[in-house]
Specification:
- The structure is a homodimer.
- The first copy, chain A, has helices spanning 54-62, 83-101, 122-134, 141-147, 200-212, 248-270, 289-300, 303-307, 316-324, 368-376; strands at residues 2-4, 14-19, 31-46, 67-75, 108-113, 156-164, 167-176, 189-194, 218-219, 229-234, 278-286, 336-342, 345-351, 357-364.
- By secondary structure, chain A is an alpha/beta fold.
- In chain A, strands 1, 2, 3, 4, 5, 6, 7, 8 and 10 form a nine-stranded mixed β-sheet that branches.
- In chain A, a hairpin with a 2-residue loop joins strand 12 and strand 13.
- In chain A, helix 1 (54-62) crosses helix 2 (83-101) and helix 5 crosses helix 6 (248-270).
- The radius of gyration of chain A is 21 Å and the shape is globular.
- The N and C termini of chain A lie far apart (42 Å).
- Chains A and B meet through helix 8, helix 9 and helix 10 of A and helix 8, helix 9 and helix 10 of B.
Chain lengths: 378, 378
């Protein structure tokens, strides 16, 4: 597997675009589109929140046949808690793209991120869609990545290349994160593309495997969003033999897809709101992998762990207290904790001495800047 | 019920003391004692953490017969994760008091609060105990309240008076809080005294009722401690008819005990680490009271809710997102949210439209000062 410079337009046959459609007061990009020349086998994972944003509901309908060809995304407005109008506008966003591209609206996905509960500025986006479609190009993957940013400081893009059956397969992706990032969700917004030939069932399975150790293993503030979504689109233009079973080709694909997802998920944590330090928490000795992840996430979401000073004599009592609060059988006599610190990277190793389950999760620190950013963002 | 000035020594027959025994570098009080002239019917609730501090283990043994006569408490060291020595020293603390007071060690409780995992400075406390006992007086309730403080800015004391069977009954209490304050625990440290005559079974029941709506309804940072404990000692010197059933006397006692616990719990939140604003979150329309409390606590523990600006156009989307993350059936169409803001007091009313369950919880905001305090505390 080779890491290459690029993003969602690195795989064959993908184009993108993104610019300011007039919604964000800052004048920063707020509308983007990813388009495939041919119809794609697709899969997606969504927020587990019971309060789902309108675009989530529309995407769940449109992804049900496993086929998509385009994805439109906006920042500056979450289109959540916006009632029937919000749902109507989310559908209209897919229709606008379908009309301009000459494809079916049911093959278009829509993502939104921004403030909850504000009327969706549909008219501004509507005016911008013709220009968005006419300006699509292979060179504009980064424009799309920037269009989905909110309080993110950096765009998050990645692309990798693998060889399957003598064919070069590329997987590209981008994501936005920052705040409201918590375990047990899809992610904030992430879009992954590939030119691999893969069946709908295998793509869905590969996505679930990749998400578990990437987007579902990070937390910034323990706050689950109403808009989280990750989609993957496979247009088959690489021409490899169709991946229809869990064979060696599938394994190579999952490994590459996982690498893409882990890179994007780690980028989200590194760019967490106000983050200055990055934590990697390795939890071992649990009764199961699931228990390991629950305990690791409890440590990662402890405000006391996230604010502690690790430069001298790390306060491991706070890690022990977080473990104790998980309802496991771990006690003082079963728990072992160690730290290593390299500049702004803090590695916490905790063994709870109950079994062989393990998990690794990623988080960032809680800083004055997080408090400032979230006091002002409205 | 009448609120009076006072604390743990307001009920008849209780004395206290507290001073600096040389453990805290700051020179602030770090050792305290509460003593009853006669043996007390007692009950206590403890942290639900699987990592229990040594004093918790000793208290669970000593309270098992429902009788106590004294309570020694220290700050500056949690005596947690301190191994067999820690446990031995926790027992020795009770023995020192027993020897000096001429009572049984099994009738002495011991509480500790401070940093986890540091060797317990037993020798310093040992030297101080004779002076601690000889200086006991009815006037020194506040000295005890100050001796259990860590990062608390203010001591937390309360006393109330009620009349049962024509007898005046007093309940007094004090607590310490600040950080590592989370739902589903006893509290940090709290000591409640009363001169009521009440059976062991009824006292335990009354304590559970009072704790549910007070200490178990507050959160500062969602971090459960290893040392949380609340004890109540009833020495019977008020001379009322023994409360042995859930009659009108019991109800009057529970009401007064609840008032004491709510006052102390709210004081803990008001004095939360770095707190500048106080939140009262009223959750209605849940399927059960338990569900209401879970959802209210999720809102109260959301860093996004706790950092938001409520002065203009409150960001209710963050409350909606927190509700959505709870795994209930609440959706955009069932949820109603309203705010009222009076100076630094923010009232959040959320109805999730599923049933008749309700709960009220209390929290404080998350500030730069919280980050600073917990970066430095070690």
């Amino acid at each position: 597997m080779k890491l290459i410079k690029g993003g969602v337009t690195s795989p064959k046959g993908f184009k993108a675009n993104g610019f300011w459609a007039g919604v964000k007061k800052s004048g920063k990009p707020d509308l983007g589109l990813v388009y495939s020349e041919t119809i794609c086998t697709s899969a997606a994972v969504f927020t587990r929140s019971s309060v789902k944003a309108a675009p989530i509901i529309v995407c769940q309908e449109n992804i049900s046949d496993g086929k998509t060809q385009a994805l439109i995304a906006n920042s500056g407005n979450a289109n959540c808690f916006t009632g029937e109008y919000g749902l109507m506008y989310a559908r209209k966003m897919t229709e606008l793209v379908a009309d301009q591209c000459g494809i079916k609206a049911s093959n278009v996905l829509v993502m939104s991120t921004g403030i909850i509960g504000r009327p969706f500025p549909y008219e501004k986006f509507k005016e911008a869609v013709p220009k968005l479609v006419s300006g699509l190009s292979q060179a504009k993957g980064a424009s799309f990545a920037k269009a989905i940013m909110t309080t993110d400081l950096k765009d998050k893009q990645v692309a990798v290349r693998i060889e399957i059956d003598g064919k070069i397969i590329t997987i590209g992706g981008c994501a936005k994160g920052s705040g409201m990032i918590e375990p047990n969700m899809a992610t904030m917004l992430a879009c992954v593309t590939t030119d691999a030939v893969i069946s709908s069932a295998m793509l869905k399975q590969a996505l679930l495997e990749a998400v578990e150790v990437s987007f579902n293993s990070i937390t910034v503030d323990g706050c689950m969003s109403t808009n989280d979504m990750l989609s993957v689109m496979a247009n088959g233009m690489a021409g490899n033999k169709n991946i229809t079973a869990k064979n060696s080709s599938y394994k190579a694909f999952v490994e590459a897809l996982t690498a893409v997802c882990v890179k994007l998920a780690r980028d989200i944590v590194f760019d967490g709101e106000g983050a200055e330090r990055f934590f990697e928490i390795r939890l071992t000795g649990a009764e199961s992998n699931q228990q390991a992840k629950e305990v690791a996430m409890k440590i990662a979401n402890s405000n006391l762990v996230k604010t502690a000073d690790y430069t001298d004599n790390p306060n491991w009592g706070r890690v022990a207290a977080a473990i104790g609060a998980c309802g496991t059988k771990a006690t003082e006599t079963t728990i072992k904790i160690s730290f290593s610190v390299k500049r702004n990277n803090i590695f916490i190793n905790a063994d709870i001495g109950l079994g062989t389950g393990s998990a690794t999760v990623y988080t960032c620190d809680l800083t004055r800047a997080y408090v400032d950013i979230n006091g002002k963002y409205n």
